[in-house]
Amino acid sequence: MNLVAAARPTDWDRMLPALWESLGETLYMVGVSLLVALVAGLALGLALYVTRAGNLYGNRAVNIVLNVVVNIVRPIPFIIFLTAIGPLTLAVVGTTIGTDAVIVPMSIMASFAFSRLVEQNLVAVDPGVVEAARAMGASRFRVVWSVLVPEALGPLILGYTFLFIGVVDMSAMAGMIGGGGLGDFAIRFGYQRFNWEITFVAVVVIVALVQIAQGLGNLLARKVLRR
Amino acid sequence: MSEREPKIVFESATKVFRTPKGEVRAVDGVDLTIGAGEVYGVIGYSGAGKSTLVRLINALEPVTSGRVLVDGRDVHSLKESELRRARADIGMIFQQFNLLSSRTVAGNVAYPLKVAGWPRARRDARVAELLDFVGLTDKARAYPSQLSGGQKQRVGIARALATNPTILLADESTSALDPETTQDVLDIVKRVNVELGVTVVVITHEMEVVKYVCDRVAVMEGGRVVEHGDVYDVFARPQHAATRRFVGTALRDRPSPAALARLRRRHPGRIVTVGVREDGGASGELTRALRDHPVDGTVIYGGITEIAERPYGSLTLELAGEDAAIAAFLADLGRTTTVLDLGTAAHPLTDPDAVGPRAPKGASA
Which residues cross the membrane (chain A) (predicted)? Predict the structure, then answer.
């Protein structure tokens, strides 16, 4: 008799509620982080772009500072970042463990990641269009929201979808500080108990989640890029 | 040309770009007056500074020194908010059209109106009017990517005219278009000038464009205006080498060095190029001179066209006769027109302003 066959059949009556709860935690962590990243990452990405030399608010000093900050944070492995910013997390949400505590590092990391995606997609916008809008008397701020963002919207949506997957990946490490979620569920009930069935189910749920998000992103981007 | 009210005045306008390789004087002390209601051409090869010059008019580029007056106001001393209002009075079209790809044709034309704060209803009416003017009413809901180059530029023109500007800047606006479409777009530019009374500044490297739409022209090279004035005067009597090259390139009336080398093989005698202009040296004058002197002339190359609706060009002839007779003939002709002596196959002389393919190595030219 082998080990798998020897294991007791999975008690889904007990496991299913735990699975749903984990899914809820994942959606909560990912959702809040993505929302924060949408605002903060977009702002930071726009700042990275417009402060480049020769751009709307070209400012070498500011641009260098922003780049250095982003470059310092981005390469830190998330599992280390999660614990390393403990003091900040404590200051923001009053605790360093649990789901809310995970959201702080996740939001920060997601914002920095998104800022680079935003910057990259804005660089691809034809500078001639910006010049045309300026020639028509549009203010610099107006050019940002009425030209730059709409012109890059399709790629921005795809970038945001890409970010979603990265954030789901980050959320799998939430278990480290008691944050729960599907990743934690797979490790605790699946991996640590040699229950491949549980692991497999958790993976399927995550894959389904990502597929839905990617499908939605593609659909939206296609609508925007119909031109 | 009757005196016009000055619309745009450059006073020692200078623009210096600092690059890692040092300073580049893109516009170098330009003094120029563009009159209200005229179509003014600025012609030059790429890098001559003409695109920078035109961007000084709407202050897309700040001047390094000097002044640029539009309707008597120095645009470079305006505050940002005043400048934005001033820009609504200066439309601009571009080589690459620069349409907003995320907006429809109507959306593109409506954009400057939104910027200027027009209410929705007036905006819609104005957009319809403009699309009718450029003949694109049926494309209102199309996206720029669904249009041809000519249609895109027409949208660009409609957009540039939206806020009823009194100035239109056309920056190489036909350089990305085929000849036929270029004609269509230039016809609209003419209409903008004639029907709406808009002052137009046309930036181009194509003499055909200047010939077709401009009243006056400035020739730029190395950031300076090397020659300017009435289109016919400038091109019929080019003083500067750059101008002569533009004329030669557009007309192809003078043999290129390679063509001259081929001509010499068939015509070893004395070859001269005679200018043809309305005020003398017209072909009649040439015929008379040939009749008066014991010289035979065979036309072997040439071209005559119109500049500003007046004839212009040159004919290249092989002359046969006594040396003294030829000399007398050339002196006679030289009193009414320009004569360029190209020598003989045995003693060739070169045309310093020749354009086109060079002669193969070893061939005399």
Answer: 27-50, 62-85, 91-114, 143-168, 198-221
